[in-house]
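Morning, I've got a small favour to ask if you have a moment. I owe you a coffee for this, so here goes:

…
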Amino acid sequence: MNKTLSADEIIAQARKYKEGREKNYREKALKLYPWVCGRCTREFTHANLSELTVHHRNHNHDDNPEDGSNWELLCLYCHDNEHSRFEEQVRYGSTSASIAEDHGGDATFNPFADLKSMLKK
């Protein structure tokens, strides 16, 4: 007979699968790439290696080619920033930079435009 799994059992299986998958590609990425954040260039050692993460460039965690072409090593902070930017793109259809462009580009107001004359007063 087929056993119906409880929600807790399904969650436990999903976590186990995720941990196994992450361990596999993380170990490979750490062998392929130098231990440096690909964005901020922070360097890592064995002491702080847990703060270096593997980011999937196409955001698909099941796409793990052996050559590592879908991975980049990012520190926790840069990784979080990358996913925030991706979420913004998914939700709003664009990034902050393109939203600014859609609304007229750079700001035109300059609060210091008449500073010299204000200082004379």
About this structure: Residues 7-32 form the longest helix (26 residues).
